[in-house]
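Q: Structure tokens for this one, please.
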Amino acid sequence: MGRPTAESPADPAFTAAVSAITDAFGDPTRRRIYLFTRDSSGDDGVTVAQVAAEVGVHPNVARHHLDKLAAGGYVEVVARAAGPAATVDRRAGRPSKRYVAVDHATFEAGVPVRSDDVVLALLGRALDRLPGHEAEAMAEEVGATYGRAMAAGLTGDAVAAGQRSLRSAMQAVADALTAHGFAAHTASGSAGLRIINEHCPFGTVATDHPVICAVDRGMVRGMLAVLHGGGDVEVATEASKARGDTFCATAI
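A: Here is the predicted structure, written as tokens:
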């Protein structure tokens, strides 16, 4: 089947469904959170603290993903029973909430959520069918497109789009990547500026299909293009856990 063209556009309803699925489950951390909530919530639901501990993210990151899933109708927010955990939540200044997966929640297109790796695995296999340089270019452009969209959501703060220094923009990129499960920070040295990712949310999929690493390089490029301005910034993968390094590094 060929790609949609101007003469044969994609079905708008299908496109909308895919967009909704991608928004809800395109992030690996969010898929893990949904699956954990679905498999362990029961009648009482799970707390932000439980999700954060299970997935290994900050509670604020867990809350963000849970609220996204709730907005999409994949989980419900319920009143939680009183108890010691509720007291901890009140001390933190947060309303007491529990999250319960909606019964039989499925993708709009009718495909049930089965694995947090399924989307990336399929992407990796699809890219493997292309010549190496084409696959890497496509993966990076996918990441860049997503990175530009991510950065657009960050430009409503005190610093407008294109008005950050490179260092400030890189810090914003590192923070955004951390929120997506990369555990990222900035670093500088004789070779220049870098963004270091201590954790890879792509997991074994990236090991099996290292071309996936081009996606996070593209995300960095796309975010910097919006936040720092002046067009695309030259980026390069300096280290990759998928290729045996102890961390991933994107050089600027």
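A few notes: The chain has two domains: 12-101, 118-251. Residues 12-101 form a domain with the Arc Repressor Mutant, subunit A fold (CATH 1.10.10.10).
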